């Protein structure tokens, strides 16, 4: 619960999206998974209490122009992944830099009902998931810009189904008022990153990250409905500088102290709209659980390293 799940150091799996976690990020899209055990860097926010998992997507300037991955298993669960990244031609001027874009697409469907124990309840929910991502990257000598946007539609249907019901003792099929579970999710998210390098030799730089998402959930459990939406906005500005002490030689081996200082400000905003209509309440008077969370912050982090033997972070 307290592990922070982020995508390229921006908010990803949190709030309403936490129920299904990394299922919303197809494995074929991943370029790397970075894991921190214990309290992680303060740069990415205050939510990494017990650890952090950061997902890095395929990069448009390094991934294959086209890649197709298809899967079909014995339960007739089908999955298709298509990814591609391309360089955008620019005038042959070093000052203009380079530009690249990529598209990552994922579709999966499990439309074959499974009830191997014949109890009238689906063993696995029927599901349909469509996930599309587009990213742009621009870079010149001292400036890097990245923009990413993703859209997701997810459906899951479980419980008792008229097509999979129990047999009565007289061999007559009967299904009255089945208990159905229907989950529908629509989500859009994205981020924009700006990086400016003031001094490449010392690593002095400024990074500005803006991210946002809108998550809409419409769930039904029997005769109980739960509708919820979450809007999130995130802004992070980071100044970073590194420097190294003069190298010294001890017992024939050189050693040096390296310093890294990161400091900045951040703000995270969440707005939740949530209504619950259980059987015990009148449908015209649902339980409303709207709330708002605003978290501004200021942070600084200093790291001291001595070769590859010692690292201290404050």
Structural account:
The protein is an all-beta fold and 314 residues long. It contains no helices and 18 strands. It has strands at 3-7, 10-13, 30-37, 51-57, 67-72, 77-88, 98-110, 126-139, 143-159, 180-199, 204-221, 224-244, 248-250, 253-255, 257-277, 287-288, 291-306, 310-313. Strands 5, 6, 7, 8, 9, 10, 11, 12, 15, 16, 17 and 18 form a twelve-stranded antiparallel beta sheet that branches. A four-stranded mixed beta sheet has the order 2-1-4-3, with no helix packed on it. Strands 13-14 form a two-stranded antiparallel sheet. A hairpin with a 4-residue loop joins strand 5 and strand 6. The model has no long low-confidence stretch (mean pLDDT 88).
What order do the SSEs take from the amino end to the carboxyl end, as H and E? EEEEEEEEEEEEEEEEEE
- The termini sit apart by 25 Å
Largest sheet: 12 strands, antiparallel
**Low-confidence parts:** none
* Beta strand %: over 45%
What is the percent of helical residues?
A: under 10%
Q: Taking all residues together, what is the mean pLDDT?
A: 88
**Oligomeric state of this protein:** single chain
Helical segment count: 0
List keywords for this structure.
mainly beta; about 60% strand; 12-stranded antiparallel beta sheet; 4-stranded mixed beta sheet; about 325 residues; single chain
């Amino acid at each position: 619960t307290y592990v922070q799940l982020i995508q390229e150091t921006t908010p990803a799996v949190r709030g309403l999206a936490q129920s299904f976690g990394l299922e919303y990020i197809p494995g074929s899209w991943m370029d790397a998974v970075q894991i921190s055990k214990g309290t992680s860097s303060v740069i990415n926010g205050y939510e990494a209490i017990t650890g952090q998992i950061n997902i890095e997507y395929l990069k448009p300037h390094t991934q294959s122009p086209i890649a197709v991955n298809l899967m079909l298993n014995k339960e007739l669960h089908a999955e298709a992944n298509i990814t591609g990244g391309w360089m955008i031609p620019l005038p042959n001027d070093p000052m203009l830099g380079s530009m690249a874009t990529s598209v990552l697409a994922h579709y999966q469907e499990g439309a074959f009902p499974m009830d191997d124990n014949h109890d009238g309840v689906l063993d696995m929910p029927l599901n349909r998931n469509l996930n599309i991502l587009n990213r742009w990257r621009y870079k010149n000598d001292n400036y890097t810009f990245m923009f990413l946007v993703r859209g997701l539609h997810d459906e899951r249907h479980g419980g008792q189904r008229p097509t999979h019901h129990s047999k009565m003792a007289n061999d007559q099929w009967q299904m009255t008022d089945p208990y159905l579970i229907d989950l529908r999710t629509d989500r859009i998210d994205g981020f924009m990153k700006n990086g400016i390098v003031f001094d490449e030799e010392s690593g002095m730089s400024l990074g500005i990250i803006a991210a946002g998402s809108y998550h809409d959930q419409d769930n039904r459990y029997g005769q109980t409905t739960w509708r919820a939406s979450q809007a999130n906005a995130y802004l992070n500005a980071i100044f970073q500088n590194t420097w190294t002490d003069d190298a010294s030689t001890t017992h024939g081996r050189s050693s040096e102290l390296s310093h890294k200082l990161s400091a900045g400000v951040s703000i995270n905003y969440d707005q939740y709209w949530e209504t619950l209509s259980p059987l015990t309440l009148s449908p015209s008077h649902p339980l409303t659980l709207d709330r708002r969370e605003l978290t501004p912050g200021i942070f600084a982090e200093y790291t001291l390293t001595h070769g590859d033997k010692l690292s201290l972070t404050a």
